[in-house]
From TrEMBL:
This is Sulfotransferase family protein. InterPro entries: Gal/GlcNAc/GalNAc_ST, P-loop_NTPase. One of its GO terms (biological process) is N-acetylglucosamine metabolic process. Pfam families: Sulfotransfer_3.
Length: 344
């Protein structure tokens, strides 16, 4: 009998550091940076979008080995099925099932293909840990219920004003040359999504033993990158001493084979890790006030200030396993500055 596949699932809201964490972890021995595996079927198989290595996914030799074990002829149907099963309107029922101690996302015939995906990835990469940055809490709950999966949840959180600002940037899905843009929700919708996904993540997993759940804030990660990534690596179950850091805040990245995610997943070579704080200057007052009003419960929970220019965020007491280191109108985004590491 094969041992279970350990999956480090990055959960929470988009634009909170998942691409950075995934890419850096993929440099450690025994770790495979898979990217957003819930998109494999649509963006990878149906649309043949680029793998992290730069090749179209169907032309990537590694994914070619994995795909031979999957029902690729049913990729479009599996993708459509996932979209239907993971709709936001299903969250109340999902949480009720979780409270009753039953499977949060009901079983489905496609689950066999999903379980085969993770097993094939582990087998063909030799990875002890597969990093899945899909973020969506319902999909994480689905993956955790699959046979042969050992799930560990890394909850990434970032100031909601920063994430709302980041979502408004115009960005190609796979880089500047891509005519298809990443999603650009209005700041109000981005704020509500931030609140919902982070709240659901806490309710699903925060009461797990320390070995099963870890919360990390983007602000802490960018304040002390090496120390924070070493702790994440240890939580994932890999040797934290073998990372790609060439200095306390600089990593040397080699190509990964990640699926989907922020275009920054394609960056290689020496990469400095610094906080992207352009939102502090360029997010309009109206947008700041709207996002703040909509996310008050989360601001309290995760220790973020209410007022612009308030004291620097500090990890709140009693936040479990968190790492403590150091209108409907769009946000007004001015000409981008040369900022720090911008994350998806």
């Amino acid at each position: 009998m094969n041992p279970p596949v350990r999956v480090l699932y990055l959960a929470g809201s988009g634009r909170s550091g998942s691409t950075l964490v995934t890419t850096v972890l993929g440099q450690y021995d025994g770790v495979f940076a898979a990217g957003e595996l819930r998109y494999l079927w649509q963006r990878g198989e149906v649309e043949n979008r680029p793998c992290g290595c730069g090749r179209p996914l169907r032309d990537c030799p590694l994914w070619g080995e994995v795909r031979r074990e999957l029902p690729t002829d049913r990729a479009a149907a599996i993708a459509a099925g996932l979209r239907g099963r993971l709709r936001m309107r299903g969250l109340p029922a999902l949480l009720r099932r979780h409270r009753r101690g039953v499977r949060p996302v009901p079983a489905h015939p496609d689950d066999a293909a999903l379980a085969d995906l993770y097993a094939a990835v582990a087998r063909h990469t030799g990875a002890r840990v597969v990093v899945d940055s899909s973020k969506l809490p319902p999909y994480g709950a689905l993956v955790g219920a699959l046979p042969g999966i050992e799930l560990r949840v890394l909850h990434l959180v970032r100031d909601p004003r920063a994430t709302a600002f980041s979502w408004r940037r115009r960005r190609g899905l796979d880089g500047d040359a891509d005519p298809e843009l990443m999603s650009r929700p209005p700041v109000g919708k981005a704020a509500l999504l931030w609140l919902v996904w982070n709240t659901v993540t806490v309710r699903l997993w925060a009461d797990r033993a320390p070995a099963g759940y870890l919360r990390v804030r983007y602000e802490d990660l960018t304040a002390e990158p090496e120390a924070t990534l070493r702790r994440i690596a240890a939580f994932a179950g890999v040797d934290p001493a073998g990372g790609p850091f060439t200095g306390p805040a600089t990593v040397r990245l080699t190509p990964t084979h990640s699926v989907a995610g922020n275009p920054s997943r394609h960056r290689t070579g020496p990469v400095p890790i610094t906080a992207d704080v352009q939102w502090r200057r360029d997010l309009s007052r109206r947008s700041y006030a709207l996002v703040t009003a909509l996310t008050v419960p989360g601001l309290r929970r995760f220790g973020y200030p209410w007022r612009r220019g308030g004291p620097a965020a500090a990890s709140p007491a009693g936040s479990g396993s968190s790492v403590a280191v150091g209108s409907g109108r769009s946000a007004q985004v001015r000409q981008p500055a040369s900022a720090g590491h911008e994350e998806g």
